[in-house]
Amino acid sequence: MATTKHVSSPKPFLTFLNLLIVAATATTASNKPVVLMISCDGFRFGYQFKTDTPNIDLLISEGTEAKLGLIPVFPTMTFPNHYSIATGLYPAYHGIIMNKFTDPITGEVFNKGLDPKWWLGEPLWVTAANQGRKALTYFWPGSEVPKGSWTCPKGLCPHFNLSVPFEERVDTILSYLDLPKDEIPDLMMLYFDEPDGAGHNYGPDDPRVTNAVARVDNMIGRAIQGLKKREIFDEVHVILLGDHGMVTNCDKKTIYIDDLADWIKIPADWINAYSPVLAINPRWGKYVENPAEKNAELVAKMNEALSSGKVENGEFLQVYLKEKLPKRLHYSDSSRIPPIVGMVGEGLLVRQNRTNAHECYGDHGYDNKYFSMRSIFIGHGPRFRRGKKVPSFENVQIYNVVAEILGLLPASNNGSALFTNNILSQFGKTGEVK
Ligand SMILES: [Zn+2]
């Protein structure tokens, strides 16, 4: 559908009328709104300036962009963020509080497993399925977990396998658009594991990351060409985003827990994770009457040591009882979050001691206030205005945006119902004119 010839009319009234026509016919291919969400893992905001990215640029110029990037949730890790995008919930509420964690109460370990008990909230594919709509996921973290009416049907939700070429992922998604109209999925969610891999291995400033960015842009181009070939590029809502950014970290910027020994000795088996989030679950033993008091003492002693000027890089780590963490992190209201959390400075590492040293590489997971942790957000399609820039926002807002486009009743979530007005045009609830 050639929308440009409609909106380029020189007559204001006709322009408005034709805008209505564009919106009204925005569902021609399937008689319904369709959303294709594409996530590029670890696509740090700014990567799009590393090299020519003509396809991402096209989405930006013809769509709506978060001008200074998409703000991830804390911790800025892959699983918590993909599931926040899908549910509109902060990790404390959707349960995936880190990629890997130990439940402080039960001692059970979560390590990206698919047991539904870990995965709280209602992700978009479940919302869609529960309301009789068709959703398709391609490697989106959490989508293989059976939930509600969603059973991760074979063919609509392939088993996670990073060896599947990116081209095959794109082509499979596109093939669903060739189905009979009433079988075309309403919602498709596609995942690429780059440029995260290159960013981890080489750090964000390495030329191999630039290559990974070019490769991802190429895949976006493949998707755009597939949509254009089917004459539905202006009808499908394409949302391009990432889960978090990436920053360099090096051995010389490390804080060693054993360096705090003059103030407080912390056994390695109390530490569930070192960095970028320090997670401490003290095991005081049954003879300690007031573990909460002991935890507070431990935090005070650690911070005393770290601010003493005598611990190497100590000024880059601050330790909190979880309930005292800054409210903006929304990271306390879950029994899965360990009692003590250390906020590690941007690009710093934490280790127990000086063994197993290694060179520089890249990582993420740090405070979401750091610009380096931001990713991208671009929306293209009938409900996204062309060439519009919006201020940065947290990715928990996206659930409501997609629900609004698809005309789904959203489950309760941490996003704002009003946010959709900031980012979507107002042509009816489901893309058609009312
Ligand atoms: Zn990663």
UniProtKB/TrEMBL annotation:
UniProt xrefs under InterPro entries: Alkaline_phosphatase_core_sf (IPR017850), Phosphodiest/P_Trfase (IPR002591)
Transmembrane segments: none
Pfam families for the chain: Phosphodiest
Organism domain of life: Eukaryota
One Gene Ontology term, aspect cellular component: vacuole
Keywords attached to this entry: Signal
Position of the signal peptide: 1-29
Name recorded for this polypeptide: Uncharacterized protein
